[in-house]
């Protein structure tokens, strides 16, 4: 990675970690090429199948092999995108580990930070630069990767093996959330490195923190934006609208009070009457809620990142003035 255009501490940061940055850049580039190549391959397969005159829905004699090959290719394409999305989910943790370990934990553990501070670089500026450089790279990198993934997934939605937008691996690989997680874990990794001052310990705590953060936000995601509700008579069933994500279901009393579905699991008339249940309700998020949910979750992540950065500066001032 070139240091042209960079000055002072920023150039030092890039130069010190240039091998790691080059490796990360190469892997990201390889991932983009792989996803783009897979997309083009699937497009070619679709064009070839369209030229045969065969149809998946109305298979005729002589089309069996072509249909099987086409469906098999679509399945492989869908699986490859699933693997790509899982890698995307791991990237924020890896970014946080890199910042917690090599960028902060190792420098504080070995004492090399004193060299920078001896060259008229204040502790606050040292911390700011060590945060800014990976933050810019992470923001740009994750934004590009999520855009490429969304582009490829749009093609996958046209196959017979689409992935729902609300699936964790899909939702977490598109929009603004990937960049939000990356910046949050970068800030948390820096804080862990400053507090623990040990490479391995800081990296371990960062991974644990990422896991806890993902679990917490997955748990509350349905509550980040008002869900839509449909109701029906207590004795009838309800279906989630096509393309929507279920956010909860249960019973409604005559007074409008909500009761959990488990209070009358068998929907017997005696149970419904005894609980004064008159309606069944279903909460859901339609596909149009994707961006509101994304933006609210990203906002939470940025607030947490800002809090971690503020705490990191406070820790630095207390220990080093």
Keywords:
alpha+beta; single chain; 10 helices; 321 residues; 66% helix; flat
Can you describe this structure?
The chain has 321 residues and is of the alpha+beta class. The chain folds into two domains: 10-221 and 290-320, no CATH class; 228-288. It has ten helices and four strands, in the order H-H-H-H-H-H-H-H-E-E-E-H-E-H. The chain has helices at residues 8-16, 18-52, 64-110, 113-117, 123-156, 168-171, 177-196, 199-220, 269-274, 290-320; strands at residues 228-233, 245-253, 258-260, 277-285. Strands 1-4-2-3 form a four-stranded antiparallel β-sheet. Helix 2 runs parallel beside helix 5 and helix 3 (64-110) runs antiparallel to helix 5. The longest helix has 47 residues, at 64-110. The radius of gyration is 25 Å and the shape is flat. Mean pLDDT is 87; it is low at 1-6.
Number of individual domains:
2
Weakly predicted, low-confidence segments: 1-6
- Give me the secondary-structure category: alpha+beta
- In helices, the fraction of residues equals 55-70%
Query: Could you tell me the strand content as a percent range?
Result: 5-15%
So what's the overall shape? flat
The number of distinct β-strands equals: 4
Mean pLDDT: 87
How many H/I helical runs?
A: 10
Write the layout of secondary structure elements.
Blueprint: H1 8-16, H2 18-52, H3 64-110, H4 113-117, H5 123-156, H6 168-171, H7 177-196, H8 199-220, E1 228-233, E2 245-253, E3 258-260, H9 269-274, E4 277-285, H10 290-320
Antiparallel strand pairs: 1-4, 2-3, 2-4
Summarize the structure.
The chain is of the alpha+beta class and 321 residues long.
